[in-house]
Known about the structure:
The complex is a heterodimer. In chain A, strand 1 and strand 2 form a beta hairpin. In chain A, helix 1 (2-29) crosses helix 6 (161-171) and helix 6 crosses helix 8. By secondary structure, chain A is mainly alpha-helical. Chain A is 72% helix and 3% strand. Chain A is globular, with a radius of gyration of 19 Å. In chain A, strands 1-2 form a two-stranded antiparallel sheet. Chain B has one domain. Chain B has 16 helices and no strands. At the A-B interface, helix 4, helix 9 and helix 11 of A face helix 6, helix 12 and helix 14 of B.
Amino acid sequence: MLTILFDGVAYGMLLFVLACGLSVTLGLMNFINLAHGAFAMAGGYCTVILVNRMGVPFALGLPIAFLVTGLIGALFERTLYAHVYARSHLDQVLFTIGLVFMSVAAIDYTMGSSQQFVQIPDALQGQFNVFGIGMGKYRLLIIAVCGLLTVALQIILTHTRFGSRLRAAVDDARVARGLGINVGAVFTVTFAFGSGLAGLGGALGAEILGLDPTFPLKYMIYFLIVVTVGGTSSITGPFLASILLGVADVAGKYYVPKLGAFVIYAIMIAVLIWRPQGLFARSAAR
Amino acid sequence: MTAPADNVSAYLRSRARWSPLEIAFWVFAFATIWLFPGKYLILKDTAILALFALSLDLILGYAGIISLGQAAFFGFAGYFAGLIAKYGIVTEPVLALILSGLVAAALGFVTSFLVLRGSDLTRLMVTLGVSLMLGEVANRYSDLTGGADGLQGVDIQPVFGRFRFDLYGHNGYVYCLIVLFVCFVLARRIVYSPFGLSLRSVKGNPLRASAIGIPVKWRLVAIYTVSAGFAGIAGGLLTQTTAFCSLDVFSLERSADLLLVLIIGGTGYLYGGLIGAVIYKFLQDWIANLTPQYWQFWIGLVLVALVLIGRDRMQGWIDAVRASLSRLGTRLLPRSAALGGAASDGGAER
């Protein structure tokens, strides 16, 4: 029972790191980015190449995955996404689904369609036994890394100048622009950072979530659930939503395995009917 | 009858008249039965896709609801049609098709209340969630639906007891085409009616629409239900003509492809789904022949390019072509001057 809870929390933390970039994108620019999972996949494959083929240590592979995906994100944001912000939601959905299809086929072409595994150092395999609860070392690492990241994000958002600019831009982009905040630049940096986080999440999660070319399609729904359920106005909303989703998914798969993902879809629909703006939204601001 | 009312009904009548271009389109569509005898299978798939896209156009083009979950109705009715044929509950295909349309419409009515809340994103998620949930349910009850192996052993009786679905797909294609035509006429009747006009006003500005006395919510519920019914008929057709139904009817790809089809053809003038389906199917066939494994890449590229070039600009090109065609039509048939225009003012989308 507690093991399920533990696994669920680890899973949820992972989902949060993967999805928090998306929630900022959506909240800041009101942009529906279905291709977010493609960045996570890029991070995952980057680690696979680095660690398995080039022999880079795992601990170094993670930050490199973060940097590489962040750069890719910045590049895409400047060259492609910037043209689509002002378009309708329908256009955004089409555009990003197109990107997803392209990334899936491109990875399939370059890396093959089979599932990839990152070689994890021996020190991280195995379990601890604490009060009879089996805790995987790797999952413990995930919780530690993601927990630290969450705290760091919260501090950046609330205690730095950049954070206050970002929050101002999310609250009201027009007024923020009027106050002399360069919303476009804030957004590029945030987008790149969010993509980098997704890449890091993809690298960390390759072991748990599995990594193959259909990754962006498979997990796109999960990211969107986190964002829609958590709301886009804060970090805590998506965080709680990811934990909830992680625990619900792991518990659902354990107790009613035949229903598969039915449980989380049902929870999502129930939440959205109850609170269309998200579970933790402050109010119907927009 | 007061004068304004007369004006309005005259206006509606003039909009609803069939233009020579439309008649030519359908004459050509039925001529394909004799023109391309070796291509029945792909033509049949195109006709089904066209009907499916038509159902999405009804809600997207006329009511402005973005949905990623039309596959829910498609798949639900597909399984329904398969199951009632397999267990011999209703063996007459036409009757079974109507029934599966009705069942899907009922599902659409029930789920419409979930969909008509919240923002675009919430709608996307709820529609997507509904179709994925149905997929999971179908997977769960695998003793009934066959699970991942698909529903097998469906035996479809001849249509009206006379026309059996043959191996070459001739009768199947004719059947699909007739169903498509009937549904199209129905949809056309709906969107050119005062009801259809009120939907357009809801799409344009829901607040003002409700201010002039249009029950916005109920209009949306109604069109969502109708559209679900059409999607259901398309799903039923697929099961009946292939005698098979698998879990991928509920997949996200199916709904996403459907959006692409409609965007290629253009929304809000009914022919968009039909033209889009033809272009999409033949594009897919052509690319799949070149690179069987990676055709998704090119489909994605088309989507990205479509958005970057801008749908409005492309709509402009299409309108220009259509305008010159209708000028041609006017010269040939002087009486139908206003009609090409009637068909094309649906094109001014967004």
